[in-house]
Amino acid sequence: MPGGYWAWLGGTALSLIGVQAMAFAMAWVAAGQGGGFAALVLTAINLPRVLLLLVGGAVADRVGPWPVMIVSVAVMVVVAVASALAVWSVTDPRLPLLLTALAIGIVDAFHLPSTGSMPRRLVPPAALARAMSARHLAGQLALFAGPAAGSLILAAAGLAVVALANAASFLVLLWVLLALLPRARPQIKPTPAGRQAECPPTGQPGVLTPAGQQVKPTLTGHLAKPTLTGHLAEPTLTGQRGGASRGVAARRAEPLWRAPLDGLRVAWSHPVLRATLLLTGVAAGFLLPVTTLLVPLLARQRTWSPQAAGVVVAAVALGTATVAVAVLIRGALPRPGAVAAAGLLVAAGGVVGLAGGGTPTWAAVAGLAVGAGSGVFATHVGPLILAATPATHLARVQSVLVLVQSLPLLLTTNVLGSFAEATRASTVLYGCAAALGTAGLVALASPILRRRSD
Predict the structure, then answer these.
(1) Is residue 120 a part of any domain in this protein?
(2) Are the CB atoms for 30 and 97 separated by under 8 Å?
(3) What residues have CB less than 8 Å from 230, skipping those under 6 apart?
(4) Quick check: is 290 in a domain?
(5) SS in 3 state form for 76-103?
(6) Radius of gyration over alpha carbons of the chain, in Å?
(7) Whole-angstrom Cα distance, residue 103 to residue 46?
(8) Closest by CA position to 146, among listed 32, 26, 264, 46
(9) Dihedral (CA of 413, 378, 118, 188) sign
(10) 254 in a domain, yes or no?
């Protein structure tokens, strides 16, 4: 793969470590103010993300991901530094935490759809599967290292220093993006409509990755070769399966206000996208709060140290990264729909272990199971979503994918946080396990997912 991709991935991985360190530190400090406030901080991130994600995907399709990423990363540097100064200057951390969370959610809404397209733009089509697997692995390694680093810095120097470390990681990513920008300029080519369409640097048609690779939706205006199931991508906006530049021109000619809604229309009208996105939403609503909300609350209720809580969160990431490595080396298992459902069942069993374990060591072992199940789900449901997505709507469907993970969190984080404060975090974990197990069993019985898996 090109050196430019590895440079981008290295800068992105470093910024993700900073993000995860900051996320853990914010969750730990917020949990000290009670479960309700901890849920409110997470809501402050998710609410603007939900409201603006579809707009962020449409903007990425319209102006391109490079300017969006550069601006959003620069804004994150300012946000992190401002957060550090605010935490240093006040004794009550609640207002700085809420304002920082709001800013992160707004920036994420624009940054996430854009950064998801970069592997497609920086590597030739033949290397796309490896590039996506490497990106997923880098993200999981950041989830492993970030909370541990955040807990150590938080215990030694406080939240403000964690925020400064986060700002430094984004400064490195900003430097990498500016250094790679000259390579991106040759990708801009005029379309027949007089607009500018972005092409892969190789100048070749983009392709969807083959079966057996863990991928996420990416942005492309080009015709896809046969997908996971052996079918061609759906017709472009011009009604043809070819004509990449015509599809891009039509996409850019449509009103900007209609583009976000068009992504929702495509996702809901396609039966496979509808089933997999609904399943992903349920999984996100009851699995993501386990590490972001319930583990810090569980640790505080059991009087564990922040380092112990960080180890549990890191164990979850390690389990997910182990699965990602296995998929990178050996490929995904056949029948990905059924395997993804089985992954939810494994994750549910791990959550039960978290709730029942009385020591940090046992909780870390259970966290490995949670991470392994989550990794199996992510690495097998991803190709189903990618293969079913029309080539002209990849950025917008990616926005919908992030949306269906963020929207349930607006409800579940507040409800679960309130219940954890009123009862026990372990009781709430048992409830999450029941929801995940039910979702896995329903998915196993779904004829749509089974038919797509065959």
Answers:
(1) yes
(2) yes
(3) none
(4) yes
(5) HHHHHHHHHHHHHHCCCCHHHHHHHHHH
(6) 21
(7) 11
(8) 26
(9) negative
(10) no
Query: What is the Cα 137 distance to its own chain's centre?
Result: 12
436-454 burial, b if ≥16 CB within 10 A, otherwise e? bbebbeebbebeebeebbe
CA distance 263 to 56: 12
Whether the CB-CB separation of 146 and 21 falls below 8 Å is answered with yes
CA–CA separation, 36 vs 29, rounded Å? Answer: 13
DSSP conformational letter for 224: -
Residue appearing with tokens 């989830």? 143
Indicate whether 87 belongs to any domain. Answer: yes
At residue 249, φ and ψ (nearest 5 deg) are -65, -40
SS3 365: helix
Distance CA 55, CA 45 (A): 16
CB 155 within 8 A of CB 83: no
Q: How many residues does the chain have?
A: 454
Angle between helices 65-89 and 94-115 (to 10 degrees): 170
Helix (H, G, I), strand (E, B) or coil at 423: coil
263 contact partners, CB below 8 Å, separation of at least 6: 54, 57, 58, 393, 396, 397, 399, 400
pLDDT digit string (tens) for the chain, length 454 residues: 678 889 999 999 999 999 999 999 998 999 888 888 988 998 899 889 888 888 887 888 778 888 999 999 999 999 999 999 999 988 888 999 999 999 999 999 899 888 877 776 777 766 666 677 678 788 878 888 898 899 999 999 999 999 999 999 999 999 999 998 876 655 444 334 334 444 333 333 333 333 333 333 332 333 233 332 233 233 322 233 333 344 444 444 555 556 667 777 887 888 888 888 999 999 999 999 998 889 989 998 999 988 888 889 889 988 988 887 887 777 777 777 888 999 999 999 999 999 998 899 999 999 999 999 998 998 888 767 766 777 666 667 767 887 888 888 888 888 998 898 889 999 999 999 999 999 999 998 888 776 654 4
282: containing domain = 3-183+261-453
Structure tokens at 265: 């229309």
Q: Count of domains in the chain?
A: 1
pTM over 0.85: no
With contact defined as beta carbons under 8 Å apart, do 367 and 287 qualify?
A: no
Q: Residue 382 maps to which CATH number?
A: 1.20.1250.20
